[in-house]
Amino acid sequence: MFRCDKCGRITDPREKLTKKTVLTRERVYQQVIGKGYYEKVNTTVGNEIVKEINLCEKCALEEANEK
Ligand SMILES: [Zn+2]
Hints:
Bound molecules: zinc ion
Shape: elongated
Helix content: 10-25%
């Protein structure tokens, strides 16, 4: 059981929770490979989840239909 962050309803015990990412931030991951002269920086850009909300089945369905 959980509270839906969209409609505020307390869900049924068996209702499925859907997490929706509402905000992401670009994140740069840097990894140093090797040492000294042979040093190389490997840069990877990824998305980090900043905020997630819980959706009930009804709201999850609505969200899916909006797309
Ligand atoms: Zn809801």
